[in-house]
Amino acid sequence: MPSLSRFRSIPITVSARRKGLVIMLASAGIFAVMGLLMKLLGPEYRVWDIAIYRFVGGAVILGALFRFNRHLLRPARPRLMLVRGVVGSIAFLSITYAIRSIPFSTAMVLFYSFPAFAALFSTCISPERLSLYEIICILAALVGVGVIFDFRPEGDVIGQAMAVLGAVFAGLTVAIIRDLRRDHGPVMIYFYFCVIGSCICIVPFMQNPQIPFHGTDLMIVGGILASSIVAQILMNQGFSYCKSWEGGLFMTSEVVFAALLGVLFLGESVTWRLLAGGLLIFAGGAAIRYQFPRGDHPPRTTAHR
What we know:
The chain is mainly alpha-helical. It has helices at about 15-40, 45-65, 70-75, 80-100, 105-110, 115-125, 130-150, 155-180, 185-205, 215-240, 245-250, 255-265, 270-290. Helix content is about 70%, strand content about 0%. The radius of gyration is 19 Å and the shape is globular. The two termini are about 25 Å apart.
């Protein structure tokens, strides 16, 4: 049986930051695949349907894989785990609603402001502080997102508000995950997210459940479930190697991966905006790697027990 004890928080060093960058890029790429699959799923499937597939499926698979052992079922900080599940569910439902109600580009640019909110919340939850250099890196990535999508605020005000709400709660979520990684493994964090998300979504889902029966739909739903589990666990693990806002900054690369998948599978064209915006996003993330000279270490944060 897989072990949960091997997933522990690791002090942030220059080499750890490099590992965090690689893990977060892998997570962002897989999340982009999940987004593509969600786009390919038929319009008859509602937000609640997609959420239940992800949450219930994730809880069942992880519970079965780890046999619901005591390490999985006994978090060290259950209240904070509950808060993480609730705010993460709100973020997921908010951005999904926004994508369905306003232009995709507007929703994505508003949502991917979440690294700024992660930086704000991290100063309250843990002793992480931002330097001017780090602020510039965040702004470069956010500008890159805007360049790719040629940002123009379009659509109804409620949809735009939901995208911003999703960004706020996503920023809070990653700050909480970073704090939880001090004494919880990435599998446990995602397992409780799935359990709490299932409890939130089950009643709306049961009002008009959409069950996939066709082979294509089953394959897409299976792909959504598999990609969400792998991507989320990678992201949770990545916060062992980087600060909360850094992880959020690295995750903005999902925009670039999503655009490339659109080129490969949806017939979209390669534009100068994709190239220039992608360069800004990756430059902002990669610049963090060189913030400290080789051999130097940033201040360590105090573990919360």
